[in-house]
């Protein structure tokens, strides 16, 4: 384990240092009796990744957003940060704590556990875990977007729409098409008026929309190819097809 943990004390462990926990953990750190408990944050990454910045950060290097969007956990006070990926929870007796098993086979006792492992995103926000991987993925996506002439975005939810806008802003000569399974962008959680207004704004940006259709086959990003949608529509000479489909819960260890 990278950090020394006081073994005389019980461990309160928070797994996942995402948006849901990073503010709450500091309040907990201020209230917890540190004479009795270690407050431990376990995360697979060495820093909090500000998801909201990830699309702009991966579309272009303008402003070097990674300097601000990747925020090291060691700035947290009265919190012991442990970098590691949780793969298994061994509960001793229900509600009485147990052991967390990490990917590198290390084990971490817990008395109280908060699971906040968030979501597994598709496409550019899916940056990986180690610092090397995250930074390499940022560079890979920047290179892909700077080379691409004709980008197809599979999924017209919030991430797909935002990505389309970021591409149009950073690379105005790049053609962008969003393929979306519904009749309007977003989904029916949102009011129809908003969805229609948004659609007009997206079209005004020169973005092409294909609705009520899907991309089933994702070509290798290194090749220029015609993409055929599920309903048989051909998008000619696409050179980058990006998934922005709904994320899945990161609950494989739970
Ligand atoms: C491109 C994009 C734009 C967004 N824009 C907005 C916006 O404008 N407004 C808004 O409200 N929301 C936005 N969101 C959504 C917002 O980011 C999420 O709702 C929020 O991050 C959820 O917080 P969380 O703590 O539950 O999960 P996350 O922030 O995903 O954090 C989960 C943490 O758990 C860690 N983890 C996962 N599995 C393990 C494991 N097995 N072991 C150890 N650690 C693990 C991860 O490394 C991660 O640090 C956006 C998301 C994206 C991708």
Automatic annotation (TrEMBL):
Query: Which ranges carry the FAD/NAD(P)-binding domain?
Result: 11-242
Which keywords does UniProt give here? FAD, Flavoprotein, Oxidoreductase
Instruction: Respond yes or no to whether keyword Flavoprotein is given for this record.
Output: yes
| One Gene Ontology MF term | electron-transferring-flavoprotein dehydrogenase activity
Chain coiled-coil ranges = none
Identify one Gene Ontology CC term for this UniProt entry. Answer: cytoplasm
Q: Does the keyword Flavoprotein apply?
A: yes
InterPro entries, per this entry? FAD/NAD-bd_sf (IPR036188), FAD/NAD-binding_dom (IPR023753)
Family membership noted in the UniProt record: Belongs to the FAD-dependent oxidoreductase family.
| Taxonomy, superkingdom | Eukaryota
Task: Return the protein name.
Answer: FAD/NAD(P)-binding domain-containing protein
Which is one Pfam family of this protein?
A: Pyr_redox_2
